[in-house]
Specification:
The protein is of the alpha/beta class. It has helices spanning 14-18, 23-32, 49-67, 74-82, 109-120, 134-147, 174-192, 195-204, 235-242, 269-276, 297-316, and strands at 2-7, 35-39, 42-47, 123-127, 153-158, 207-211, 223-227, 250-255, 283-287.
């Protein structure tokens, strides 16, 4: 057993760092099997030597977050703890993102690889379950590229496919009818850009959010283009989209092959293109799994439960 006293910077807000009723400390204790005892700005860590070192690393990263102006929450504790396993450790260099309204960092090795791929490839295809950061990180890369004047505009699109529901008649003009399908893209944009800047860029056309059908017949130069929910494209729609981008443009395609809402018997363009473009120069295919889920930890457990059931059905057939 080992014991070490960690002296925290006097400027740190230990109440926020430790969490409500020391919830952050309790989470670290449970995950690493250590004991943490707080005395003012001092924190005593007791446990196996390797666990004590790991706890110091977690607390150090949480302290750095707070020092950098980011409020520390339960998600941050979970994210940092997840990086401690060999499988999740982020080892490759993390690219710098410029001018974002919120701090964005890859939380897993797959996310770091993906973020680097968006910078070094003309086309990146991201495949994996919900909550793995596919769209959010692509949006962060797009905003950063725009801020550095690497592209003149950002184009965000997704197919307008109903998720197993019948929405019926929607009032309003064409844009108002399709806006519900595009809302997740707006949400990500407003989180990564100051609202007033986002509104200005939308108004002047430097940021465009449109359904996939609006892409037909266009050539998109000097643009960072993101196709979200690509599992709901048909093979022909995917071909149409991928032949739209022109000179000095980057494309990121994201999708979850387990959440296809196409009619029965209709092949998914995402599944088709992932196989078709494997190994093609200039194309990177990033794969995510439930270990990369960075939403509420229950989301990862839900993803695993569905995956296990689907595998069981496949084995029985």
């Amino acid at each position: 057993m080992s014991s070490e006293t960690l002296v925290l910077d006097a400027q740190l807000d230990t109440a926020a760092l430790f969490g409500l009723y020391d919830a952050h400390l309790r989470a670290i204790e449970e995950a690493l099997e250590v004991t943490l005892s707080a005395r003012g700005q001092q924190l005593v860590i007791d446990g196996p030597a390797t666990a004590v070192a790991a706890a110091k690393q977690v607390l150090g990263e949480l302290s750095d977050l707070q020092t950098g102006g980011t409020p520390v929450g339960p998600d941050d504790v979970r994210f940092i703890l997840s990086k401690l396993s060999d499988q999740q450790r982020v080892t490759e260099p993390v690219p710098e993102l410029h001018g974002l309204a919120t701090r964005v960092m890859p939380r897993t090795a797959n996310q770091a690889h993906y973020l680097n791929a968006t910078i070094h490839n003309d086309l990146v295809i991201a495949v994996g379950p919900a909550g793995t950061g596919k769209t959010y990180l692509a949006m962060a890369a797009a905003v950063s590229a725009y801020n550095q004047k690497q592209v003149r505009r950002i184009v965000l699109t997704r197919p307008a496919v109903e998720a197993g529901e019948r929405l019926g008649f929607l009032p309003g003009d064409l844009i108002e009818k399709v806006n519900p399908y595009l809302r997740p893209l707006y949400d990500a944009l407003y989180e990564l850009m100051a609202p007033e800047k986002a509104e200005k860029l939308l108004a002047q056309g430097d940021v465009e959010i449109a359904p996939l059908a609006f892409m037909r017949g266009r050539t998109l130069n000097d643009a960072f283009i993101i196709l979200d929910e690509a599992q709901n494209t048909t093979v022909n729609q995917m071909k149409m989209f991928l032949t739209r981008f022109g000179e000095r443009s980057q494309v990121v395609v994201t999708g979850d092959p387990t959440q296809v809402d196409l009619p029965p018997g209709e092949a998914s363009g995402l599944a088709d293109v992932t196989t078709l473009l494997q190994g093609v120069e200039g194309v990177s295919i990033a794969h995510f799994n439930d270990d990369d889920v960075v939403r509420h930890p229950l989301v990862a457990r839900i993803v695993r439960a569905y995956a296990a059931r689907d595998q069981g059905r496949a084995g029985a057939s």
